[in-house]
Each structure stands twice: as structure tokens, then as C-alpha cells.
Write a structure and sequence with these properties.
Blueprint: H1 3-18, H2 22-28, E1 33-42, E2 48-59, E3 65-66, E4 69-71, H3 77-93, E5 100-105, H4 114-128, E6 137-138, H5 147-161, H6 182-201, E7 209-213, H7 217-228, E8 232-237, E9 242-244, H8 251-261, E10 271-272, H9 275-279, E11 285-288, E12 307-309, H10 318-326, E13 330-332, H11 334-337, H12 340-354, H13 360-385, H14 389-407
Parallel strand pairs: 3-6, 4-5, 7-8, 7-11, 11-12, 12-13
Antiparallel strand pairs: 1-2, 2-5, 8-9, 9-10
Helix pairs in contact: 1-3, 1-14, 3-14, 4-5, 6-7, 6-12, 6-13, 12-13, 13-14
The protein binds glutamic acid.
Length: about 400
């Protein structure tokens, strides 16, 4: 289950269907640039540790490279390549003028102190300083990278170039060039898509049971918004616990508990279940919002949900996709469902470059417009070719990327 192999299979499937120019397929079958570094960090106890770090600049046909940096022990080059490729597709689906890239550091972020995290974040910027920049390649948060980390990165870059250059990264804190609405943007964007989908399917939010995997920025935000909009969130999973109550969980209380106790352990009135049980729960909507390769040919045959809303990147393998399609389960792909994050990142960058900041209402209404037109474009391609939403999203994106490549060749 190599994420990059999966990504290329998705490309191949869409390319065949739409009869995509062979040269475009070739260009998109490898990253434009792959950067690697070893980051030497002095740990708090005085010993030196080396952290492998990456930046993959996948494709810039539609604009500067854009995509997050992940701090995670499972990071490797193929994962970063897959994520960079998906960013290329995602930015084109969202129709923002950006290419795709991704970065990472192989590290267990939870084991670092605040000071070690700061040194690592600044070292990442120093290693790739020549290759990133507001007009070139603009990183952002991803798994275990926070607004605070983005602030250190923007500060390090600004010091290196000798002027304020906050547009070098997005997802920054509000006090330091961030945008209103960025923290919630990924979840908010996913909710706009989900609302459009359930309207189309003739379903009502208050009749739907949901299970959410992941309680980070995206999963936590989703659980909160789903709860607020009347969905019944019956199960949530974080990296340690999986909890279930068929009558619905009190999400605000649960998030408060997790914040105070740093864990879901001892949350009252719930049943602890395994992750394997979680994926096959009798729910209407499954929201994977954690890692790649969670829905596979192992668990797909037993999934009971009608809808899978992919808020993580790459949670479903191509084998599982086939099984889900045959079972009539609607999969809303990552490149559409979670594109609200990068969309508001783009708004943040526009605000940084123009030094003119928007109200939260403006951000939300612009996001809604972008998400709605992305949804409509994907829906109409899916109707035209009679294909699943992932293939339709890829076709939508590939038409736009191919047009940008063709016009200058
Ligand atoms: N890491 C997020 C994603 O996978 C956001 C990227 C960004 O804002 O550039 O879409």
C-alpha cells in the first residue's frame, strides 16, 4: 500500500477515461523537483539528533507550489510525493492559481519540547530557503504542524531575506499575518460539500449518524460542526482511543475532556471499541480525517455507511474504491472534500501580498463560493462520464492542468 503507487493509479484511471494527452500524463507521473535534507538539531539534553526532511515540488503549471509540511514518524519520500501530487490535483479542483507541493520531517512531534520544535521548524526553513518563497513555493500546516510552527517558519524566512515576508507560509496565527477563518477552513469546506451532497441525495442532517476518525484540526473541527448542524456523531477515534455511543456523543464536552486530559480515556457514557469495529459501524456517514490507507480491501466489504467524506488525504486505496463503488457507497474524494484548507490558505496569501485583511464574513462567503463551484464542476463531470466523484474530480483538475500546460507549449 504505497501511497504514491495509489496516486499514480488514480491518475491513470482518469487519464484513460478522458483520453488525456500522453505528454501531460508523463509530466504528472513524476515530481518536478525533489529536495531532501538532514536537519541537525541540538536536543534539550544537549545531544545532537538528525532528522530527515523533505520538500517535493510536484507541479507548477497553474502557479507557485502549494502544500503543507507534515511532522510524523511515518513520513517518507513516496508519501510526500503522493501528497504533493494530490495537492496539484486539489488546487486545480478548487480552481485556485497554485501548483502542488508537500513537505515533511520524519519525527514523532509529540516527543519534542516546544524549544526543540522551534529549532526543528527554523532548521527546515534554513535547509530549503533557496527553494521556497512567496512567489515560488508556499508551505502550510499538515499533520502535527501548527499555526505556531508556521509563525516560526515565516519569521525565520523573513530574517534570512532581511524583510517581512509573511506570504512565504500560510496557516499562520492571526497576530502574525494569519487569515480569519483559516483554522476552521478545512472542516468548514467539507461541511459545504456534505450539505450539497445530502441535499442531492434527499437526506436530512438530523436523521444521519456519523463516525469521525481523527480529532486534530480537521477531524475535531468536523465533529464540532457536524454536531452543531444537528448530525448525530456516534463515534470518534483519535490515535489512541475509539469511543462509541449509538445515541450520539456530546462533542463540545468530549473536545473539552480531550483538551484537559490530553486523551479520551475515561470519557463517561461510552463504549471503547477497536478501530476495526469503528470502520464497520452502522452509521450513515464515515469521515476519515487522519491518515492514508485506512479504508482498504480488508474493511471495505463490511462498511455500512452510505457516504464516505474523505477529510484526510489518501484514506482510501484504489482496491477499496472499486469495492465501495460496487456496493453503491458514495465517496467524496479528499481532493474535493478537504480543499477548503488550501483555499483559505490561498486567501491568506492574497491578503499577505496585498497587505489588506478581510473580515471573517468575507472569507466564509468566498470559501462557500469556491467550494460550491468546485462541487458543481465535479458533479457535472460525474454525470457526463457516469463515474464516481474521485474520477470526476481528477478529470476536472486534469482538464485545467492540461490547458495550462498546452497554452505555453
Ligand atoms: N495540508 C493541507 C492540505 O493537505 C493544507 C495545505 C495548504 O494550505 O497549503 O490540503
Amino acid at each position: 500500500m504505497n501511497a504514491y503507487d495509489n496516486a499514480l493509479r488514480q491518475l491513470e484511471k482518469a487519464a484513460q477515461l478522458m483520453v488525456l494527452d500522453k505528454d501531460v500524463v508523463l509530466r504528472l507521473s513524476s515530481p518536478e523537483k525533489t529536495l531532501m535534507a538532514s536537519l541537525p538539531i541540538k536536543m534539550d539534553d544537549g545531544h545532537l539528533q538528525i532528522f530527515p526532511a523533505y520538500r517535493v515540488q510536484y507541479n507548477q503549471a497553474r502557479g507557485p507550489y502549494k502544500g503543507g509540511i507534515r511532522f510524523h514518524p511515518q513520513v517518507d519520500l513516496d508519501e510526500v510525493k503522493a501528497l504533493g501530487f494530490w495537492m496539484t490535483i486539489k488546487c486545480a479542483v478548487a480552481n485556485i492559481p497554485m501548483g502542488g507541493g508537500k513537505g515533511g520531517v520524519v519525527v514523532d512531534a509529540k516527543s519534542l519540547s516546544q524549544a526543540e520544535t522551534e529549532r526543528l521548524s527554523r532548521a527546515w526553513v534554513r535547509a530549503f530557503r533557496e527553494e521556497i518563497g512567496p512567489a515560488k513555493d508556499i508551505p502550510a500546516p499538515d499533520l502535527y504542524t501548527t499555526p505556531q510552527i508556521m509563525a516560526w517558519m515565516a519569521d525565520e524566512y523573513s530574517q534570512l531575506v532581511g524583510k517581512p515576508s509573511w506570504g512565504v507560509v500560510t496557516g499562520k496565527p492571526l497576530e502574525f499575518g494569519g487569515s480569519l477563518g483559516r483554522e476552521q477552513a478545512t472542516a468548514q469546506g467539507g461541511m459545504f460539500i456534505l450539505s450539497a451532497l445530502i441535499d442531492k441525495m434527499g437526506l436530512k442532517a438530523d436523521k444521519l449518524k456519523v463516525a469521525v476518525q481523527g480529532l486534530g484540526n480537521v477531524g475535531g473541527g468536523m465533529a464540532e460542526l457536524l454536531y452543531k448542524q444537528g448530525y448525530k456523531v456516534v463515534a470518534v477515534a483519535d490515535s489512541k482511543n475509539v469511543i462509541y455511543n449509538e445515541h450520539g456523543l456530546d462533542i463540545p464536552k468530549l473536545l473539552e475532556h480531550k483538551k484537559n486530559k490530553k486523551s479520551l480515556t475515561d470519557f463517561p457514557g461510552v463504549k471503547e471499541i477497536s478501530l476495526a469495529e469503528f470502520f464497520v459501524l452502522p452509521v450513515d456517514i464515515l469521515v476519515p480525517a487522519a491518515m492514508e490507507n485506512q479504508i482498504t480491501d480488508n474493511n471495505a466489504p463490511d462498511i455500512a455507511a452510505k457516504i464516505i467524506l474523505e477529510m484526510a488525504n489518501g484514506p482510501t486505496t484504489p482496491e477499496a474504491d472499486e469495492i465501495l463503488y460496487k456496493k453503491g457507497i458514495v465517496v467524496v474524494p479528499d481532493v474535493l472534500a478537504n480543499s477548503g484548507g488550501v483555499t483559505v490558505s490561498y486567501f491568506e496569501w492574497v491578503q499577505n501580498l496585498s497587505n489588506n485583511y478581510w473580515s471573517e464574513a468575507e472569507v466564509t462567503s468566498e470559501l462557500k463560493e469556491k467550494m460550491t463551484s468546485a462541487w458543481q464542476a465535479v458533479e457535472s463531470v460525474s454525470d457526463k462520464y457516469k463515474v464516481d466523484f474521485r474520477t470526476a474530480a481528477f478529470v476536472t483538475a486534469l482538464e485545467r492542468i492540461a490547458a495550462a500546460i498546452k497554452i505555453r507549449n
